[in-house]
């Protein structure tokens, strides 16, 4: 029984030794929470230098994170002004709409050239322009700015990996 309890205690201590730090960006009073682990892509604005950092999150400490943009930058958590949450579907859909608008513009223009008609017509600009405008609107929904302050907070969580 003594050996079993010693092995159990050693296993629990080893689990606490291999814990993973997680950066949590949450909106106070709501259920909106975004988690960032080491290795995740991150976009943030540092308020003191007014610098926009886009890169991979290398390391998370209690008060400092390391972001690899061109070279590793150490950023204090209290100096972070904004964190930008990236949304996958609106970004991808907006890119497809832009490619579709440009493709329809090229296809209609090529069709008019083959049939010896006027190349640039009103319907050509309406169809492709509508798709490009929809693309711009959809791409604007591709990211959300979480401005740190009264509403948004950053916390560092120490989650044990078992």
What is this structure, in a nutshell?
The chain has 162 residues and is an alpha+beta fold. It is built from 3 helices and 9 strands; from the N terminus they run αβββββββααββ.
Please tag this protein with its features:
162 residues, alpha+beta, SH3 type barrels, 2 domains, six-stranded antiparallel β-sheet, three-stranded antiparallel β-sheet, 3 helices, 38% helix
- The helix tally amounts to 3
Termini separation (Å)?
23 Å
Ranges where pLDDT stays below 50 over 5 or more residues in a row are none
What sequence of helices (H) and strands (E) makes up the elements?
Answer: HEEEEEEEHHEE
**What radius of gyration results from the CA coordinates?**
25 Å
Q: Strand percentage, roughly?
A: 35-45%
Helical residues, percent = 25-40%
Give the biggest beta sheet: 6 strands, antiparallel
| CATH class label of the largest domain | Mainly Beta
Which architecture name of the largest domain does CATH use? Roll
Biggest sheet: strand arrangement: 6-5-4-3-7-8
Look up the CATH topology of the largest domain.
SH3 type barrels
Task: Give the total of beta strands.
Answer: 9
Secondary-structure class: alpha+beta
Identify the quaternary structure here. Answer: single chain
What is the total number of structural domains?
A: 2
Instruction: Give the rounded overall mean pLDDT.
Output: 87
Shape type? elongated
3D structure, described in words:
The protein has a 6-stranded antiparallel beta sheet, with no helix packed on it. The protein has a 3-stranded antiparallel beta sheet with strand order 2-1-9. The protein has helices at 2-17, 88-114, 122-140, and strands at 19-27, 33-36, 41-46, 51-60, 64-68, 72-76, 80-86, 143-147, 152-160. It folds into 2 domains: 19-82 and 147-160, SH3 type barrels, CATH 2.30.30; 89-140. The protein is built from 3 helices and 9 strands; from the N terminus they run H-E-E-E-E-E-E-E-H-H-E-E. It is elongated and about 90 Å long. The model has no long low-confidence stretch (mean pLDDT 87). The chain is α+β, with helices and mostly antiparallel strands. Helix 2 (88-114) packs antiparallel against helix 3 (122-140).
């Amino acid at each position: 029984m003594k050996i079993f309890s010693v092995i159990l205690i050693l296993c629990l201590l080893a689990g606490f030794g291999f814990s993973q730090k997680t950066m949590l960006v949450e909106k106070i009073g709501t259920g909106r929470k975004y988690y960032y682990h080491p290795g995740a892509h991150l976009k943030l604005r540092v308020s003191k230098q007014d610098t926009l950092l886009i890169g991979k999150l290398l390391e998370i400490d209690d008060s400092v994170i390391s972001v690899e943009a061109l070279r590793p930058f150490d950023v204090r958590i209290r100096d972070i002004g904004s964190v930008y949450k990236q949304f996958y579907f609106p970004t991808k859909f907006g890119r497809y709409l832009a490619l579709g608008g440009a493709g329809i513009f090229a296809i209609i223009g090529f069709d008019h050239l083959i049939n010896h008609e006027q190349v640039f017509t009103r319907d050509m600009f309406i169809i492709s322009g509508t798709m490009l405008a929809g693309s711009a609107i959809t791409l604007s929904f591709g990211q959300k700015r979480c401005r740190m302050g009264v509403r948004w907070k950053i916390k560092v969580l120490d989650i044990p990996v078992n």
